[in-house]
Amino acid sequence: MKLYVYDHCPFCTRARLAFGLKKQPFDLAIIMEGDVETPTRLVGKKMVPILQKDDGTSMGESLDIVAYVDGLSGERLFAGKDEAVDAWAKDAWPLLLKLIIPRFTKGDFPELATPEAREAYRLREEKAFGDLEALMAGTPGFIAELGPKLEALASLLEGRTAVSLSDITLWPLLRSLSIVKGVSFPTPVFVYMKRLESEGGVPLLFDQAI
Ligand SMILES: N[C@@H](CCC(=O)N[C@@H](CS)C(=O)NCC(=O)O)C(=O)O
Fold it and tell me: Which intervals hold domain GST N-terminal (predicted)?
């Protein structure tokens, strides 16, 4: 099975995390930003993640891929969900985007390895989010706004060991946030990030934080 992703994409990370937590082998394939042909050939539109199954058919939509992977072997891990965690993610997402998007466009990701691909991505995000340098300049305020939200998340994650569908949506957001320099992660949040990094096999982005 081949999973097509952009490395930076949190929706793609959902699928990668599911494979990792289920210990299900897969091949990871990077689609370059600006490559319209590959995803269109596989699923009829420019969108990732895409899972190409062993029978040659392909499927899109991260949560559909997660459900498919979950059903491949063993007991289902991603059946239940934690509504408080889901509510946190929904509430925090618009603020997280302001921090992560401008950094993603500058990041060291294989799908941005050519100047053309990076420019295609920058233009795509500028169209969606406006002036990316203005967002960078807003960083101190956004980080201050994030502080109490991360403290609230810490109380939700304290002592958490069970895995559910909520981890599939939450952890990729925190992975994305690890590209932001200067964010202070409360200990329970940091412990959670590192635990699922290790169990899921998707590297956090601290080493390229800007
Ligand atoms: N609902 C989709 C959303 C996936 C999504 O928004 N992927 C983005 C990358 S992060 C994408 O493919 N955007 C279109 C593009 O690259 O032009 C899912 O969960 O799989």
Answer: 1-77
